[in-house]
């Protein structure tokens, strides 16, 4: 048995003819005996011979300094670790933290090994429910192809069969029950873990078999689809540590969004010089379809439009613009759109002190990687996106690492779209500064899926596995009844302040503003406030929150605090708990829902006032509403 430093969590490991572990939280089973195993080729079963050679138990209490702090700069890393070395050349490690449990396999075979499968079982007490993003079938591809963009659904665990498969994180527990999130970390040279049902009280890990054959599906967004898979999930080094299987535990809902256990378990970076990594804010034009107005030129993918975006970014304190799909032939990065003069644009951006960022198609970037990165360097590009991977088998996971390393060699930051969640990758590659892996703002173009209730589910679920690129900031806002999915006239459900609060509530060291700059120019006070937000944080505290209902997040940067709140369709008045705010006097700027935001969700009001620690603060959020409070310290206490 091994316990967390605060003794609230106990893990019991049972060895008989198999290995099982169970987890108790405050004396009650949160996970019942669950089997684990690693099955290798040549009938090698890691639990086939359980003779223990030795075991070690030790306590670690350190601090990780994050170079790109998405939640906090100084991350306490306090745990009890049990290492069991078996007579056969493998070990099993368990780490028990005050906020979760993790285990991993480590092998020390001399030669390479083939992993046929991994057994990762999660057995729950009867009657439990789980929130999980169930995969939708995709025409023309197998079940392991997904863009990792699904709604979280609440299901009884025993209602899920093995045909129901989701990507992680998933979250169990409802109401006052202890919450348990299942995810993974340190995913290297190995496939990601899906979660499926079993028809009973348990969930199990499922892993994509290794791709033996791929076929390029050509088109506007060409991508490789797996046409033949092997009878194994990975071929890898014989001496290695495998990914962590991670259980995040929380007594209260509000303890989940601030959890950074997955980052702590990520493999430390080998990069030495990180001074070239610059978090910040970026524009993107794709969601609004470049539907600009009040301009003297034809908007589109052209030089004039991108100069307009550069001027907009400069005016409101955004660091860079994204040139999204269309700046080149998607299938050839050197076949540049004839309406764009890249030399003129890069010079203009450099003179304005704004960076240019580029969208790429993963299959194209893979083929043209070295020459493309050199060209990006010449243009002064310090951040790129690559898109349409839509897999997490071993071959694709290795692609992520190879691209991140190549970008690091060229001092370029990278964001992956059509991608799985970070899962500690951003600790290994700090230049992999954010990640999609979420159903975000773009879905407003063609569906009604991104509701305010969904928006306030993400911090408690998907965000457990790392930062997410939601791309907030849509400036055309609608009630549930008003909303329509309209291409190039994109609106969002909920209020304007709900959109603004996402910049504070969602972890992402590189936030992407997706609203229409022509509208933003008409509301300079709003945009100046939004443009002043940091994207990295010294400290993060979740003041209040309930999954799918609402959240209030307080973040500290330097001496200043930023508090963001979001609600579902239920209006709420919140009295802010400010006990964690440093004592002192502050200049306060509050952007809150306007009096008519229930009928006209773009209605907001910005108030400026002095505030001193101890004074009560109440904020009303309209249906689908939100707020942001910026507190700038003005004394030296």
Q: How is this fold's topology laid out?
A:
Layout: E1 2-3, E2 9-15, E3 19-25, E4 28-40, E5 44-45, E6 52-65, E7 74-86, E8 90-97, E9 100-108, E10 113-123, E11 129-132, E12 153-156, E13 165-167, E14 170-172, E15 179-185, E16 193-197, E17 202-207, E18 211-217, E19 223-229, E20 234-236, E21 239-241, E22 244-250, H1 261-265, E23 280-283, H2 303-316, E24 320-323, E25 328-329, E26 332-336, H3 342-352, E27 355-361, H4 362-379, E28 383-387, H5 394-409, E29 413-416, H6 425-428, E30 432-435, H7 452-455, E31 477-478, E32 492-493, H8 496-505, E33 510-513, H9 517-521, H10 524-531, E34 539-546, E35 550-557, E36 560-567, E37 572-575, E38 585-593, E39 604-612, E40 618-621, E41 626-633
Parallel strand pairs: 23-24, 23-33, 24-27, 27-28, 28-29, 29-30, 31-32
Antiparallel strand pairs: 1-2, 2-3, 3-4, 4-5, 4-10, 6-7, 7-8, 8-9, 9-21, 9-22, 10-17, 10-20, 11-12, 11-14, 13-16, 14-15, 15-22, 16-17, 18-19, 25-26, 34-35, 35-36, 36-41, 37-40, 38-39, 38-41
Outline the structure in words.
The radius of gyration is 24 Å and the shape is globular. By secondary structure, the protein is mainly beta. The chain folds into three domains: 2-265, Distorted Sandwich (Beta-galactosidase, Chain A, domain 5), CATH 2.70.98; 282-533, Aldolase class I (TIM Barrel, Alpha-Beta Barrel), CATH 3.20.20.70; 561-633, Immunoglobulin-like. The protein contains ten helices and 41 strands.
